[in-house]
From TrEMBL:
The keyword Nucleotide-binding is annotated on this UniProt entry: yes
Species this chain originates from: Streptomyces lichenis
Pfam families registered for this protein in UniProt: AAA_16, GerE
SMART domains in UniProt: AAA, HTH_LUXR
UniProt protein name: LuxR C-terminal-related transcriptional regulator
Domain HTH luxR-type: 844-909
Domain of life, per lineage: Bacteria
Transmembrane segments: none
Keywords: ATP-binding, Nucleotide-binding
Length: 910
């Protein structure tokens, strides 16, 4: 079981040089992703194998290979990358891109501690989407890492899109491969045959094969005597499949049996398994000619030696050349030996006719897997049943159930591939429901709502109330997205009356809570979620969406610390098949919690993570919300250009968004920018207009606690006291919790009193607000805004000492948060040089402001005494990335050492 003669390798000099340059960059801490693309058989694997042999002594290797058997199993390839110490495939299937991506970052970090890492993703078009997304997330978070990622694929655009790397730019290098030239093919033949055929013979072969190395290898292997001199005697098979079949026939029967078995198995096979299936003790010896002539390779990854074919094109050609009856018998024999799920796949492949018993077994297996949370396997079994059930109705039901599972587990791309097949099934509520879910998967919530309502009504007319409950709950998700509270509540009530499914009940609870919030505000929605355990960890998986909504509504109502607990748990433990809300949703609202708590760096860090998750597993609505959040953070930090860029992106996305009120959220984000710029008239125009539109009344009730204080204060400052009082009455009628509600209410009361000329009442309102107990977390930005207005008013009233003291507190808080515009206003009002004037910062402060968001994150955590490893875990980065950014910080500040950095950061932040 030696390696045999190495396969001939010629040409590709330029391609190898590009890979070598990429390896040098990676070894120097500049991570690179190289995408090697081209048609099957063109030599992608051979090129990467040759390169891997070159760097094998200096690079550690992590490798995952795509397999059609696992294309629909979430995180199957990621599980192999994480190795024996990592979670099993079923356990990985219950994770999220955020969770699994974080584990991959840690694994790459550990691996590169000893040597640079070559991460190989082979046949990436066949790797499951979850693993590609998790790998993409990990790679997006890397800087300074000694990691070279080489991806081989015959569909580069699709692979990069699934990894979220399509727009990454210089970090991704494309390396497309074409066929060998005539001179390269002639050199190949010389190595293969021991002599050089005439150029005319090789030219003919190249013209037929387009220089495809697998075609050339097979053709030469099928002509043991070499290329004939007489051109009339040269018969070149027209297709790759045909030439591979002829090549296979040149092997001895025992070797050919091994080759055919590998084609049917479609996976690397250990020698003991091959021996058992072939009833032979000589498998290793019989396999040697295959290895020596380049038809197969040995694989040693622990355990007994295994054999595999070169790549998918060879397998397909060999498989097609095996007589159908023989293929079926081999599949059935394999099914007797292997365990599920592999045994089921071979039983289906071995079925020569429709098989009712097998279909029934697959449906039972699907139900069993679904019951234990393995929705991916359940969907796979359902699709298989749809192929072999002799009953047309059985095939239809299996298809619809499987596609439904694909949608509700978030595998939208896989589900949409079956859209035409679903549309061809018989009309009725099941088909309509699945078509509605496919509209939802495609981001068309309006169309989804119409389809799902039709399905719900259709089930009800038939008396199929349990099925109707599922459609009603799915309808409610779309209704909530569109802000239709009454419809969402109606659907939730119906679903809860007619279902025993915990998943359907979980959807209904979440829908009802959000609908109640649309009707009566966040507190009303929270009351609807009183059924959830207070302990976040005790909330069942089926209630994950309700947990996300509870966190969101807690944040809006003022319980910021409770909200963060719910949202963090929802983001990290989201299980496939249990949640309809994007994994970015809890991250989005966690950003607001951190912002309102004054943890602006943490808010920016969470936005960064959420963007990378959205790039790999998100939809356009996620990017719209993230750009709105980015604009808010930049506006409060005084980065006007960055805020404008985010708002421009959000506006572009809003043009095609089929979601809940993009115009409302865009107007609110623009109003925040204008508030930070001090343009209260624009705040009134934007927010006042959004809140007056009847279509937005439900959203106004949900998001009022977030926006109404700004609107009330802006009305008061622009002299519209009556409008300001209307806003004040709305806030007084709303039910809020904790310090946030008290501060917001007191801020607007003070602004209204000041606008009416009642300075005494204004001061009293501000002071009462500032003395409120700090329950649910201290909303430092709002507290500081109240202090800014109070200090200004006290100065105007001649209470100079008290006013300066309050303004000094506000200025210190704004400076610590990085709220540049508001800190500058405080200093302007103080105006006597007790605080540095805006723009008068020294060189260190200027450099500090020029650092990137991530560099400031790391510097601030270093100043708190965190280790690089702790920082890496907190920020979803590798330790090498932390070192990279920290090195940049040291160089730009002109310092060395953590102690000096800590001193500078603490001085900069006051």
């Amino acid at each position: 079981m030696g390696g045999g003669e190495p396969r001939p390798f010629v040409g590709r000099a330029a391609e190898l040089d590009r890979l070598r340059r990429a390896a040098r960059d990676a070894a120097a801490g500049r991570p690179v992703v190289v995408v090697v693309s081209g048609p099957s058989g063109v030599g992608k694997t051979a090129l990467v194998e040759r390169f891997a042999d070159e760097v094998g002594g200096t690079f550690g290797v992590l490798r995952a290979e795509g397999s059609p058997r696992e294309a629909d199993l979430p995180f199957a390839a990621a599980g192999r990358l994480l190795g024996r110490g990592g979670p099993s495939v079923p356990e990985m299937g219950g994770g999220s891109v955020l969770e699994v991506g974080g584990r991959l970052i840690e694994a790459l970090d550990r691996a590169q501690a000893a040597a640079p890492v070559l991460l190989r993703l082979e046949d990436a078009a066949q790797i499951d989407a979850g693993s590609l997304q998790a790998c993409g997330f990990a790679l997006l978070r890397m800087r300074g890492d000694r990691v070279l990622t080489v991806v081989t694929t015959d569909r580069p655009a699709r692979t990069l899109a699934e990894m979220g790397l399509g727009g990454r730019g210089a970090g991704v290098e494309q390396l497309p491969l074409g066929g060998l030239t005539v001179s390269e093919a002639r050199a190949y033949a010389r190595l293969r045959l021991g002599r050089a055929p005439s150029e005319s013979r090789v030219r003919t072969l190249v013209e037929w094969s387009q220089g495809n190395p697998l075609y050339l290898e097979a053709a030469l292997g099928a002509l043991p005597g070499g290329l004939p001199d007489d051109p009339r005697a040269l018969r070149v098979p027209a297709t790759l499949g045909e030439v591979v079949a002829e090549w296979a026939r040149t092997f001895a029967p025992a070797s050919r049996a091994v080759l055919d078995l590998l084609a049917v198995l479609d996976a690397p096979a250990p020698v003991p398994l091959l021996g058992r299936l072939l009833d032979s003790r000589a498998v290793a010896a019989d396999a040697e000619p295959l290895v020596q002539r380049g038809a197969a390779v040995w694989v040693r990854e622990g355990g007994p030696p295994a054999l595999r074919l070169l790549h998918a094109a060879q397998r397909q050609a060999l498989y097609a050349a095996i007589p159908q009856a023989e293929r079926a018998r081999t599949h059935r024999r394999i099914a007797e030996v292997l365990q599920p799920p592999a045994s089921w796949r071979h039983r289906v492949a071995g079925a020569e006719v429709y098989d009712g018993g097998l279909a029934a077994g697959l449906r039972a297996a699907a139900r069993q897997e679904e019951a234990v949370g393995q929705s991916a396997l359940a969907a796979e079994y359902g699709l298989a049943a749809a192929q072999i059930d002799p009953d047309d109705r059985g095939r239809r039901e299996a298809l619809l159930r499987a596609v439904r599972l694909l949608v509700v587990t978030g595998r939208y791309g896989a589900a949409l591939e079956h859209r035409e097949a679903v549309a061809r099934t018989a009309a009725g509520p099941p088909r309509t429901e699945v078509l509605g879910l496919l509209e939802f998967a495609d981001g068309r919530d309006t169309a989804a709502r119409l389809r799902l309502r039709e399905a719900w009504d259709g089930y009800a007319e038939r008396g199929a109330l349990a099925e109707g409950a599922g459609a009603a709950a799915e309808f409610g998700v779309a209704a909530c997205s569109l802000g239709l509270a009454d419809e969402a509540l109606e659907s939730a009530a119906f679903a809860l009356r007619h279902t025993h499914s915990e998943v359907v009940r979980g959807m209904a609870h979440a829908n009802a809570a959000y609908a109640e919030a649309l009707r009566g505000g966040p507190a009303a929605g929270l009351r609807r979620l009183g059924c959830l355990p207070a302990d976040t960890g005790a909330v069942p998986d089926a209630e994950t969406d309700a947990l996300t909504h509870r966190g969101t509504l807690r944040m809006l109502a003022g319980d910021l610390t409770g909200a963060l607990g719910d949202l963090s748990a929802a983001a990290r433990r989201r299980h496939l098949g249990m949640s309809r809300i994007s994994v970015t949703a809890p991250l989005l609202y966690a950003v607001w919690c951190h912002f309102l708590l004054g943890e602006w760096r943490e808010a920016a860090r969470t936005v960064s993570v959420a963007f990378d998750v959205a790039r790999t597993a998100g939809r356009s609505v996620d990017f719209f919300a993230l750009h709105c959040l980015g604009a808010m953070l930049h506006s409060f930090s005084g980065r006007a250009e960055e805020a404008a860029a985010d708002l421009h992106e959000a506006a572009e996305l809003a043009l095609s968004a089929d979601m809940a009120g993009p115009s409302f959220h865009l107007a609110a984000s623009r109003a925040v920018r204008e508030f930070c710029a001090g343009d209260d008239e624009r705040v009134v125009a934007l927010l006042g207009g959004a809140y007056r539109e009847a279509v937005h009344q439900g959203r106004a009730r949900v998001y009022g606690p977030r926006h109404l204080p700004l609107l009330g204060v802006a009305y008061a400052r622009t002299g519209e006291a009556e409008r300001a009082e209307e806003v004040l009455r709305l806030l007084e009628g709303a039910e809020g919790y904790g310090t946030l509600a008290s501060l917001s209410l007191g801020w607007v009361r003070g602004a209204v009193a000041a606008a009416r000329g009642d300075g005494e009442s204004a001061v009293r309102a501000y002071r009462t607000a500032l003395s409120a107990p700090r329950d649910g977390g201290d909303p430092l930005p709002v507290r500081s805004l109240v202090r800014l207005d109070l200090g200004t008013l006290l100065l105007e009233r001649g209470e100079t000492g008290a006013g300066r003291a309050v303004l000094g507190e506000a200025e210190a808080a704004f400076t610590a948060m990085g709220a540049v515009p508001f800190a500058a206003r405080c200093r302007a009002r103080l105006g006597d040089g007790t605080a540095p004037a805006a723009g008068a910062a020294g060189p260190v402060a200027e450099v500090w402001r020029s650092l990137s968001e991530r560099e400031r994150d790391i510097a601030e955590l270093v100043a708190r005494g965190w280790t690089n490893r702790e920082i890496a875990h907190e920020l979803f980065l590798s330790a090498k990335t932390v070192e990279y950014h920290l090195g940049n910080v040291y160089a730009r500040l002109g310092i060395d050492g953590r102690r000096r950095l800590r001193d500078l950061v603490q001085r900069e932040q006051g």
